[in-house]
Amino acid sequence: VIDKHLEARQLLFTPDGVLWASLNFPGRLGSYDGKTWKIYPGPDLWPEYPFSGIEITSDARGNIYGIAERQEWIVKIDQDGVISKIPFAYSSLGFNPAIMRIFIDSQDTIWVNACLKNKTDACLAYYKESQWVSLVNLPFTTVTGVNEMPDGTLLVSTVIGLYKFKPEK
Q1: Can you give the chain as a three-state secondary structure string?
Q2: Strands of 161-165's sheet, edge to edge?
Q3: Cβ 144 vs Cβ 165: under 8 Å
Q4: CB 121 within 8 A of CB 137
Q5: Alpha carbons 153 and 118: distance in angstroms, whole number
Q6: What digits encode the pLDDT tens for the residues 109-156?
Q7: Is the dihedral of CA 113, 119, 121, 126 positive or negative?
Q8: Is it true that the peptide bond before 50 is cis, omega within 30 degrees of 0?
Q9: 26 preceded by cis ω (within 30°)?
Q10: pTM to 2 decimal places
Q11: 29, 37 in Cβ contact below 8 A?
Q12: Which residues contact 130 (CB under 8 A, 6 or more apart)?
């Protein structure tokens, strides 16, 4: 047992072998280097607290990105522990604030899946050069995972099947 008191929602290994966990209520992130845990408390990460439901991902360098339900920021934790925040105004983007999926591609583009407010239509949005771009009218609603093929094509797994998506950004 690494720690029987931590209830993890999601686990993720970064390229340097550090284990990261999104921890259930009250919205914390933790990293484990094989010896000790470092916990990032919810109030240090997101302005509105408490909440639950954090999704995490990492880029190729091992930086961690987290998105939390009903929060207006994506949190980035650099390998050196520096925390920065990327604006994610889900309400002005027309997203439902339910838990969203997050993925970083090989070009360091942040991808988020969400449903649009008052609709069942899915949306993929990406963040590049300090702006959000939404892709709507997709044939699926709920994304369960995203991965990238060597040619940059995204594989999007959904509750109704697997889709290939070639971003043209």
Answers
A1: CCCCCCCEEEEEECCCCCEEEEECCCCEEEEECCCCEEEECHHHHCCCCCCCCEEEEECCCCCEEEEECCCCEEEEECCCCCEEEEECCHHHHCECCCCCEEEECCCCCEEEEEEECCCCCEEEEEEECCEEEEECCCCCCCEEEEEECCCCCEEEEECCEEEEECCCC
A2: 143-148, 154-158, 161-165
A3: no
A4: yes
A5: 30
A6: 998 877 666 666 667 788 888 888 877 777 877 777 888 999 989 898
A7: negative
A8: yes
A9: yes
A10: 0.84
A11: no
A12: none
- Smallest CA-to-CA distance from 9 within 69, 96, 76, 91 is with 69
Share of the chain above pLDDT 90, in %: 25
- What pLDDT score was predicted for residue 84? 93
Each residue of 78-99: pLDDT tens digit? 988 899 999 887 666 666 656 5
Q: What is the mean pLDDT of the chain?
A: 82
Largest CA distance in the chain: 46
Residue 6 and residue 19: Cα distance in Å, rounded? 13
Residue identified by tokens 């994304």 is 143
